[in-house]
Amino acid sequence: MLKEINIAFLGFGTVGTGAYTIISSNGRKLFEKEGISINVKRILVRDVAKKRSVVVDKSLLTDNIDDIINDPEISIVAEFIGGEEPAREYILAALKSKKTVVTANKEVMARHWEELEKTARSTGAGLYYEASVGGGIPIIKVIRESLQANNINEIMGIINGTTNYILTKMSEDGRSFESVLEEAQKLGYAEPDPTFDIEGLDAMFKLSILSTLAFHTRIHIDKIYREGITRITTDDIAFGKELGFSIRLLAIAKKHGQNIEVRVHPTFIPADHPLASVRDAYNAVFIRGDAVGNLMLYGRGAGDLPTGSAIVSDIVNACLHESGHTYSTLSNGDWTPDKILFNDNWETEFFIRMTVKDQPGVLAKIAGIFGKYGVSIASVIQKRRNGDSTPIIFVTHKARELSIDKAIDEIKEESVVIRVENVIRVER
Ligand code: NAP
Ligand code: HSE
């Protein structure tokens, strides 16, 4: 005997149509295995008259959230409208009505986790968010349910498909940033506002969720250093390649004792690094646990069906745990303990590209400034001159972030330095 579950969708764009397609095509077989039959009863959209890419009975569509919140037959609400509001308001309304929520919304989770989880806990409704990080990769479940035995002390990941797609195409095909971004949008990888992808906000929200779960400490987004990919040029990529590097937007969280560093920025990694093989819209998350050692999860980080896969999996799990949902330990009031220190002076290597005047003594002058701030140089490449100027690239040994900032500020003041073109961190 199948158990009938009525659910509602909030949103019917890339993720909504992906989840709907999976339920329509794999539904019967999939849910017979689990003893559950899922019926999508209502779908909230902005514009009910809009032409849809997936055929759906028009009577399911509504632009009124009350049709869903006030329907006692609907027990699960799956949210993929995106953005902060009204998504947060609708999720809260659903939870307060004891409806379990499944969401792909990393922004709402990262910003309002406490409020959502406390509300869910107080009404006994479930709150599931697997699709919020890593698209089809079951990373939340792995951290929450498979790595409890570990102290996780490092996460390093490619967790934004759009920027990985852009950087891959710029690196491999020499294409412009703008044309690849347009393509990523057409493929459904980008956020409704692509600034969130290219400026690193999407990765920042996701890193907040992952590091919060991994470190059992609330990592608010304001603790995360963030830099997007808009300043990366084909010249940076080409010079990096000559040095054996690949460029990626990395999300990094490290814990050294009670010290935590959390950052999202474009990063050079050696071309033979495992994360360098992650191309296009694929994502990968590398985790280091004290018991398990190194672990890497890899898969499609964006798109309709991969993300739909995570959504449908959460819906099935929500049905299976209807009589007792579990919550993260954070909703017990265990917020960031005072003893945790956030470190913004981390140590890494740096790639520094400048244009300088081509004249004697320039190298010595710049090297002297680096030396003054304790920055040791690992290699220097000077390229062919271009008129009176020449490109020059320094790769440093590990140095402190603040030392590099001070050295660069002073180098910029030197009359022989025409421009500091870019400073890109290097991880190995
Ligand atoms: P999308 O294609 O732009 O779809 C958004 C949907 O929400 C549309 O159907 C839209 O209605 C509806 N909507 C937006 N604002 C609304 C409002 N105020 N009231 C009612 N309906 C509203 O977005 P998406 O790419 O599916 O992303 C949705 C969420 O999933 C975001 O949180 C995103 O971060 C997350 N996510 C996306 C992906 C991905 O690969 N795209 C992967 C993982 C997670 P209309 O159709 O009428 O305009
Ligand atoms: N815009 C996001 C990305 C979608 O490009 O990764 C998946 O969260």
Keywords, separated by commas or semicolons:
428 residues; alpha/beta; six-stranded parallel β-sheet
Mean pLDDT: 94
* Class from helix and strand fractions: alpha/beta
Largest sheet: 12 strands, mixed
The value of Rg in angstroms is: 24 Å
The amount of beta strand, in percent, is: 25-35%
Number of strands: 18
- Please report the distance between the alpha carbons of the first and last residues: 54 Å
Describe the structure.
The chain is an alpha/beta fold and 428 residues long. Helix content is 36%, strand content 28%. The strands form 2 sheets. Strands 7, 8, 9, 10, 11, 12, 13, 14, 15, 16, 17 and 18 form a 12-stranded mixed β-sheet that branches. Helix 4 links the parallel strand 5 (100-103) and strand 6 (127-128). Helix 4 packs across helix 9 (201-215). The mean pLDDT is 94. It binds NADP nicotinamide-adenine-dinucleotide phosphate (NAP) and L-homoserine.
TL;DR of this structure?
By secondary structure, the protein is of the alpha/beta class. It is built from 13 helices and 18 strands.
How are the elements arranged and paired?
Elements: E1 3-10, H1 14-34, E2 36-44, E3 61-62, H2 66-69, E4 74-79, H3 87-96, E5 100-103, H4 106-123, E6 127-128, H5 139-146, E7 152-158, H6 161-173, H7 177-186, H8 195-198, H9 201-215, E8 225-226, H10 234-242, E9 245-256, E10 259-270, E11 282-289, E12 293-300, H11 304-320, E13 341-342, E14 347-357, H12 362-372, E15 377-382, E16 389-396, E17 399-400, H13 401-413, E18 417-426
Parallel strand pairs: 1-2, 1-4, 2-3, 4-5, 5-6, 8-10, 10-13, 10-18
Antiparallel strand pairs: 7-9, 7-11, 9-10, 11-12, 14-16, 14-17, 14-18, 15-16
Helix pairs in contact: 1-11, 3-4, 4-9, 6-7, 12-13
Bound molecules: NADP nicotinamide-adenine-dinucleotide phosphate and L-homoserine (HSE).
L-homoserine (HSE) binds at residues 135, 160-162, 189-191, 197, 202, 301-302.
